[in-house]
Amino acid sequence: MIQIDRNARAPIHEQIVDQLRFLIARGRFSPGQTLPSTRTLADQIGVSFHSVRKAYQDLVNEGVLVAIRGRGYMLAERSSSTTSQQMERGAAIVQEALHRLVGLGLGESDIEYLVEEQLSELLSSDGGPRVVFLGRYAEEAKTGAAFVAQSLQLDVEPAVFADLSRFEDADFVIAPYSEIRLAMQRLPRTDVIGVAMGLPGEVLEQTARLYSQDTVALLTLSAATIQPLSNELRRQTGFPGQILAAAVSESAEAAGRVVEQADVVLYTPGAKRRAIRFIPKNTTALLIHAFPTAQSMRSIGDAISANLRS
């Protein structure tokens, strides 16, 4: 999964380019395969689709990707770069990294140790399982994948049903129980692990104390998140009041209006950066996201470990 470091010196689109090159080199994408749309990838990693489009275009200019009108971006059948060109670019990258390591005060033995250690981890990770977290909507897929990845120290990719054709070679698909049957039908050769999804305890506690005359504002990144997350919130808390919702990526004005009418504001991780601009300081505001329960996390770890041992 692509991770963006907002404190890094490299621009966001360059970070995307570098990580896409890495994923392509590891065989994550096959020649002729269509990559996620610019908006889909942008939503998954929490950046502007303009940054993704610029990254894709850079890879088109390098001959790594091909842009096809009406179909998006596909991985080229083979890279147009020669071995000598790749070696030349690689040497420049190594030289820059070495200069920065020396600048940190590291000696030759320290640098050699770091290079060998990181190379060993990189090579050992190539043989790991391909794990996918299937969300009912894109924001759930992203937060679920990040949660499982951090908990189990695995590389976990987010996916929604529209993307499943890209994951036919996945070893494991983790899916909410309500989606297991569909996941098994779409990926019959993949091990599907079911999970129960929960919401943050602070969100449940605060919402459960509200009455029918109270109003909750729900700010999401995408409109597709609103209905399933609202339903889950009502199911787990019995909240009888009104939920006013807005997708911040679609209408800033709508987001501002629902916040003005709310007693409590809930916002998803993807909406956080934009949502905080609309929330008054004296308003209760909480982060809301669905994540696998602790018991489900133990089941996921046990299932993957048992499968890899067999």
What would you note in describing this structure?
The protein is 47% helix and 16% strand. The chain is α/β, with parallel strands linked by helices. It has four domains: 64 residues, Arc Repressor Mutant, subunit A (Orthogonal Bundle); 43 residues; 84 residues, Rossmann fold; 89 residues, P-loop containing nucleotide triphosphate hydrolases (Rossmann fold), CATH 3.40.50. It has a four-stranded parallel sheet, with helices on both faces. It has a four-stranded parallel sheet with strand order 9-8-10-11, sandwiched between helices. Strand 5, helix 7 and strand 6 form a beta-alpha-beta unit. Helix 1 packs across helix 3, helix 2 packs across helix 3 and helix 2 packs across helix 6. The model has no long low-confidence stretch (mean pLDDT 88).
If strands are numbered along the chain, what order do they take across the biggest sheet?
A: 4-3-5-6
Percentage beta strand: 15-25%
If you average the pLDDT, what whole number results? 88
Low-pLDDT sequence parts: none
Q: Helix amount, in percent? A: 40-55%
Number of helical runs?
Answer: 12
> CATH-wise, what's the superfamily of the largest domain?
P-loop containing nucleotide triphosphate hydrolases
Broad structural category = alpha/beta
Q: What is the domain total for the residues?
A: 4
Q: Which CATH architecture of the largest domain?
A: 3-Layer(aba) Sandwich
CATH topology of the largest domain: Rossmann fold
Basic shape: globular
Supply the CATH class of the largest domain: Alpha Beta
Q: How would a crystallographer describe the biggest sheet?
A: 4 strands, parallel
What is the ordering of alpha helices and beta strands?
Answer: HHHEEHHEHEEHEEHEHEHEHEEH
Radius of gyration, Cα only, in angstroms? 22 Å
Terminal residue distance = 26 Å
